[in-house]
Amino acid sequence: AISSCKKGGEWEKALQLFRMMAQQNCELDTLTFNAAISACATGAKWEKALRLFGVTAQNSLQLNTITCSAAIGACEKGGEWEKALQLFRNMAQREVESSTSTWSTAISACEKAGEWERALQFFSTMAQSSVESNTITFNATISACEKGGEW
User: Fold this and answer.
1) What Cα–Cα distance (Å) separates residue 134 from each residue in 33, 49, 141?
2) Roughly how many angstroms between the first and final C-alpha of the chain, as a whole number?
3) Does the pLDDT at position 65 exceed 70?
4) DSSP one-letter code for 98
């Protein structure tokens, strides 16, 4: 139900459902947290996403690529590129595997902040890490360079 609300752009309803589940002592597993954090990303509510991300870790739930990608995406959409990159870097420390989507979101955060050099650095590191690029990755990197007058 939370994911359905998120997909419909109803992030507030998704978070309301999440709170109701918590109040009724329903089991909140990693999938539930992923859906709630993703809903925050949809609404560009990075602070709420980071709070939920912290609660996930506090509850000893297994963070996964989706959890981290959703939190990074919320920061990216909220213009918090430094927080997005910090979360990305913390993934390796927590032994969470990154995905093409995670890398693309980190590059997009750099692009939106006008950090074209960082975007290129991430793109280069991504290639060295044998993570496959996609159209979103290339577009974000090209856009970052264009915004920096470096193309």
Assistant:
1) 27, 26, 11
2) 44
3) yes
4) P
